[in-house]
Amino acid sequence: xxxxxxxxxxxxxxxxxxxxxxxxxxxxxxxxxxxxxxxxxxxxxxxxxxxxxxxxxxxxxxxxxxxxxxxxxxxxxxxxxxxxxxxxxxxxxxxxxxxxxxxxxxxxxxxxxxxxxxxxxxxxxxxxxxxxxxxxxxxxxxxxxxxxxxxxxxxxxxxxxxxxxxxxxxxxxxxxxxxxxxxxxxxxxxxxxxxxxxxxxxxxxxxxxxxxxxxxxxxxxxxxxxxxxxxxxxxxxxxxxxxxxxxxxxxxxxxxxxxxxxxxxxxxxxxxxxxxxxxxxxxxxxxxxxxxxxxxxxxxxxxxxxxxxxxxxxxxxxxxxxxxxxxxxxxxxxxxxxxxxxxxxxxxxxxxxxxxxxxxxxxxxxxxxxxxxxxxxxxxxxxxxxxxxxxxxxxxxxxxxxxxxxxxxxxxxxxxxxxxx
Length: 421
Fold this sequence. Notes:
Helix content is 31%, strand content 20%. The protein is α+β, with helices and mostly antiparallel strands. Helix 1 (50-66) runs antiparallel to helix 6, helix 7 packs across helix 8 and helix 9 (296-315) runs antiparallel to helix 10. The longest helix has 21 residues, at 193-213.
């Protein structure tokens, strides 16, 4: 059989269940991707409901009381979605939420945006609008005065922009602006069963998309070609693609890639770092594999990273400081001759990050982080090894903490020859 005038070569065979990786001329890739053999996996998904949102607000208000915070200011982003359901974007026209320690939320938004904002608003709220010739900060200040909160401690969510917090400080000089982290992190860091179920579905979709995509990878493909396959599969399976980072050959030595041209080649690393969302909740899974015969050095590094993942998972016990997981992995890598610390060749980034509505959330599995692990916390586990000028290997699977210890969202691959289980 001929493909594009070049003889076909069996490269991935046993590693991918009999799949073949063929030689194609540069740029030879079908414009349309046939996903007719896939079906949505989201028929049983249960969105976050009114009871769940009410419980979030109740917990937030309890934490505000415990931390002496009278109200919180939140701009568009994951925290706004988490507490109010509002899906909006940052712009020069301020839309924000005020969550008081007592009573219902207040939403401040441009007058002409109110109907659109209400479409995703999922909690009872007092919606106050401002016109284009008015100051939205004045609206926020007045709302706080109306609730008797103008002299209290106002929590500022960590992604609120300076112009908003600074404007509020000038509008309410007797108020004290403080970090809202004790409240926001106190709520968002520990996921409920409903949130974990959505993250599990997102992970299941990403793994299914990997298993569909991998047998279709061909020598000569670019990161864009592979990403297009992964995106098509993810969408057909019911996920919303969040990112597809594909690193080939030497580019895999640099955790977030290289601008140099890349193509799949026999005997060189293919590193895929992909994730999707289901009802806004994210997955984040990485796989590294080799079309054809893997060089011995690649195989050794792959096995070391796999052991690093196992060490991180074993160290993740309830009550353990998050930084201790990173320390355990780094100590093992140093015994294998990598590092020390963040030096290369070695592990140049943290072992893992929090994950949920945001792909990267507090807290991280990183040296020095003292936050103790607790049930409901969710993390990536990705202790990659990077050899500049040569290649890198990253295996990444996420887990969530239970009362008895960590539980995988996706199982790590059993071997380099079986990268997708």
